[in-house]
Design brief:
The complex is a heterodimer. By secondary structure, chain A is an alpha/beta fold. Chain A has helices spanning 42-50, 74-80, 97-111, 119-132, 137-141, 150-164, 180-193, 208-212, 233-250; strands at 2-11, 16-26, 31-35, 55-64, 67-68, 82-85, 92-96, 143-144, 168-172, 199-204, 217-222, 225-230. Chain A is globular, with a radius of gyration of 18 Å. The mean pLDDT of chain A is 92. Chain B has one domain. In chain B, 21% of the residues lie in helices and 38% in strands. Classes of the chains: A alpha/beta, B alpha/beta.
């Protein structure tokens, strides 16, 4: 599904190398987690995959179902099936949440040569999905993320994911700013989307999210590289011993 | 003290071809206007009030040529039930206009009433225009009072069932037009006035509005998008106790527009909202909103909300003032002027002013100028919305606060359609 090969990335503005040869493959139907200390390059990886400005790929590449992701505009990557759940969802005053979602959904459909969804079908669908995530009608009507609490913003990200039905979901620190109840709600939302044809890359600093979203594979990232890969037990090791032990071990 | 030679020559050249209409009640008002004009002269490039907008083409004797735009767009407000009054290059078109009778309002024309011996228009014609000359002179409005021969004269006595729609058509590349409208709203009466243009190659318009206690007037205007047209418009409004005046203007292109709005809140608990949305394209696009609101009564509310979207070197200007007189306690004044610059070549010049002499007031003002927010743009694109569509969505979002000042949803939809058309023509 998602294949990252020897990916080297530096910041465009300062000559600073952030990713130094990342190799990773997420298979359809699997959940991979990336853990790592602050500054290891986890969020950079998510931004580079989704096409944010400001990064320069100096070596290597990334493909989604064989298609070169890095050649595509951000909107083309989305239409190809990539979804990034933002660590800090952006507020957009003046654009209603529903308008935003409907515009996005139909833009993707149009890009794929599919028919646009009618207003009635869209409404029916979003009501059902919103209900599962305990998102009320008021939140749907309000401008995108404006005045939302941290938990509401993250739930809104998952709602978008549920509506857009991507093939490959990248979740960037989705647990940050969530209390226990919100974490449960968000995780349930993600778990409901787990499916045979869909891959997940869950980026997190802490193990606790992985109690709820059980990964198949866990990677440890440090200084711009994947330094260790293992099963779910690797996450527990981090929880118990911190990153220092693992990093010392691979050094 | 006479005028400087330069101003004197400019004034003489401008009025050389104009005749001062004689007879009737209006004769004295016109004579007075001419003498005020002789004292003030026309706006010049060095006048402080014209620092950001060059008045040359508004002042010169001949109107610069303005091609008539050929478009297959549906006319503005098409399908809205309204009483139509049509002026073609400033000339009243009886055939295209509706019958001017409507319950709750009496509609006449300046050309019909100006030479009568007596008419209520005498108490309004040039009166608010004269009041509006202090503390800043507005000589183009005075020129209008002196020489204009037509316009509508509307007396709102009740609540007419539909809006009164002034439709301006531009058919002559060189037309130079002045119109002067009078609107008197009786106590407890309420009406809506629509205006849409373009009116001429060059248009000088004065509207004097007198709203009695408890009266309300809604003014909704769309200035036409003929690329080379020039507009100088003046809206003078005087508000009585518990009265309401709301004015909304959308401007799409046009080479030069100067919209001056002068409002006096003279009765307690009155409300005045004036809002403008402007979108402009190209380095010869220039749009100027100049607003002066005077609070001279207790517990009045005023809002100025102006948003401009500028691209390809366009220029936007905002000069807005709130003056709060010593006895105007409990004033609630708000003023915001913002521009969205879609490229580095466009510019926005703003001069927001507050002058407050009362001590128990709440006045706020803000002015900003910025580009499309990169984070918002990326967020939309990451969800699959293409660059152009995302930019349009954010542009309309930027205009939202001003659009919300237009409470009538049908009219707002008409405006929105024009804005979307403008956005789509970028590509």
């Amino acid at each position: 599904m998602l294949k990252i090969e020897n990916l080297h990335v530096k910041l465009e503005e300062e000559d600073k190398q952030i990713l130094k040869g990342v190799n990773l493959e997420v298979e359809a139907g699997k959940v991979h987690a990336i853990m790592g200390p602050n500054g290891s390059g986890k969020s950079t990886l998510s931004y580079v995959l989704s096409g944010r400005d400001g990064y320069e790929v100096t070596e290597g590449g990334a493909t989604l179902e064989g298609e070169d992701l890095l050649e595509l505009e951000p909107e083309e990557r989305a239409a190809a099936g990539l979804f990034l759940a933002f660590q800090y969802p952006v507020e957009i005053p003046g654009v209603g949440n529903m308008t935003f979602l409907r515009t996005a959904l139909n833009a993707q459909r149009k890009a794929r040569g599919e028919e646009e969804m009618s207003a009635a079908d869209f409404l029916k669908l979003i009501r059902a999905k919103a209900k599962d995530l305990k998102i009320d009608a008021d939140m749907l009507k309000r401008p995108v993320n404006v005045g939302f609490s941290g938990g509401e913003k993250k739930r809104n990200e998952i709602l978008q994911m549920a509506m857009l039905e991507p093939k490959m979901c990248v979740l960037d620190e989705t647990d940050s700013g969530l209390d226990v109840d919100a974490m449960k709600l968000v995780s349930d939302g993600v778990n409901a989307l787990r499916a045979e044809g869909r891959g997940f890359l869950v980026i997190t600093h802490y193990q606790r999210l992985l109690d709820h979203i059980k990964p198949d594979v866990v990677h440890i990232m440090a200084d711009g590289k994947i330094v260790k890969t293992g099963g779910p037990e690797l996450a527990l090791e981090v929880e118990n011993n911190g990153y220092a032990d693992i990093l010392a071990e691979v050094a | 003290m006479g005028l400087p030679q330069e101003k004197l020559s400019a004034l003489e050249a401008r009025i050389a071809g104009l005749g001062l209409p004689q007879g009737g009640w209006s004769e004295a008002a016109r004579a007075d206007a001419l003498s005020r004009l002789n004292a003030a002269g026309l706006p010049g490039r060095r006048d402080e009030y014209w620092k950001y907008t060059r008045p040359d083409t508004l002042v010169q004797p001949e109107a610069p040529e303005a091609a008539v735009l050929v478009t297959d767009e549906a006319p503005m407000f098409d399908g809205v039930d309204r009483l139509k009054i049509v002026f073609v290059d400033g000339v009243f078109d009886a055939d295209a206009s509706d019958d001017l009778t409507l319950d709750g309002v009496r509609i006449e024309r300046l050309a019909e009433i100006a030479d009568r011996d007596i008419h209520w228009g005498r108490e309004l014609y040039g009166v608010l225009e004269t009041r509006g000359q202090d503390p800043v002179a507005r000589p183009l409005a005075t020129l209008n009072t002196a020489f204009t021969t037509d316009g509508v004269v509307i007396h709102v006595t009740g609540t007419p069932s539909k809006p009164i729609s002034l439709i301006y058509r531009h058919e002559d590349d060189r037309s130079d037009v002045m119109l002067h409208h009078l609107i008197k709203v009786d106590s407890g009466a309420e009406a809506t006035i629509l205006e849409n243009g373009p009116a001429a190659a060059r248009f000088n318009k004065v509207m004097e509005i007198d709203i009695a206690d408890g009266g309300a007037l809604h003014h909704v205007r769309s200035q036409g998008r003929d690329h080379d047209r020039r507009d100088a418009t003046f809206t003078f409004a005087r508000l009585g106790k518990e009265s309401e005046f709301r004015s909304f203007t959308m401007t799409v292109n046009g080479v030069l527009t100067r919209n001056e709005t002068v409002i006096e809140l003279l009765g307690d608990d009155a409300l005045a909202h004036v809002a403008g949305v402007c979108v402009g394209d190209g380095d010869n696009f220039h749009h100027d909103d100049t607003v002066f609101i005077t609070h001279d009564a207790v517990n009045c509310e005023s809002r100025q909300v102006f948003k401009k979207v500028l691209r390809n070197g366009a220029t936007g200007v905002f000069q807005g003032k709130i003056l709060v007189k010593p006895d105007a306690q409990k004033t609630d004044g708000y003023q915001i002027s913002q521009s969205l610059l879609l490229d580095d070549d466009s510019q926005f010049l703003a001069k927001p002013e507050l002058e407050i002499y009362a001590d128990d007031v709440a006045c706020s003002h803000g002015s900003t100028s910025g580009a499309i927010d990169e984070d918002q743009l990326f967020y939309l694109r990451a969800r699959g919305v293409p660059m152009d569509q995302a930019t349009d969505l954010l542009t309309l979002a930027f205009l939202a606060e001003a659009m919300e000042e237009l409470a009538d949803e049908t009219l707002a939809d008409h405006m929105l359609e024009r804005l979307e058309g403008w956005l789509s023509r970028r590509r």
